[in-house]
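User: Structure with 3-methylcatechol, tokens only please.
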Amino acid sequence: MNKQAIDALLQKINDSATSEGNPRTKEIVNRIVQDLFYTIEDLDVQPAEFWTALNYLGDAGKSGELGLLAAGLGFEHFLDLRLDEAEAKAGIEGGTPRTIEGPLYVAGAPLSDGHARLDDGTDPGQTLVMRGRVLGEDGKPLAHALVEVWHANHLGNYSYFDQSQPAFNLRRSIRTDAEGRYSFRSVVPVGYSVPPQGKTQQLLDQLGRHGHRPAHIHFFVSSPGFRKLTTQINIDGDPYLWDDFAFATRDGLVPAVKQAEGAEGKPYGVDGNFALIDFDFTLFKERENLPGAEIERLRAAA
Ligand code: MBD
Ligand code: FE
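Assistant:
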């Protein structure tokens, strides 16, 4: 079809709408339908290909993989870059970079003051201690800030989604102390891979891509009056460090992993060798006329 004929059809569809409904939804859906009509025309998409795609999305939804797909197709990282841009325009730059939340957060993790142990002692991974401070953009420590942390086990799996792990394994919320300090003891995580038999992997195969993430630890860091930070740190040395299927690795989020032992582990109840990461988080003050940094999205809760 020529473009005029397509546009006439789009016009007819738009004209079928009353003044009811939601203007924002109308604007977005009409635009997406227009873009897809043009795509179908330009690429001569065949009916069987269209139905394959539609059923693919339905199946991906049924198996709970749409969040994974959003990460793997780069949408989640793109949304981050757009938030960065909005902040840069408002003069917010530097500080701890944000990076994607991913689909595996679970609300309701146990809350500790200052320090927490995330593992239950059964994970064979190397003992990890991570510690640091939460700071404001002026470099002053933020007392009683909230550090929510979650990560995968030695097999790259997350509790709740992996029913073989205890509830809230490797998930905690930690309040910083009066000097803005947090610390936790855990085990060094292993990188996640998308389910090999799942719908996301099926598409990645078609795209000639892998579904691996480098080892990482997720954080939400928040304090009243400050913009909530959603970020991750990566475990340096992972072969996928700069080859993440979700494009989430960023400069400034790859802290050194030191090997420590002996008395250094005492404050954290650790004997023997352990990996030690020092990392401070810097938050920006909330400002008017900026898109919120607290993202509303459906999340698991236990
Ligand atoms: C993860 O652990 C993750 O962080 C992302 C973004 C996608 C899938 C699994
Ligand atoms: Fe993750």
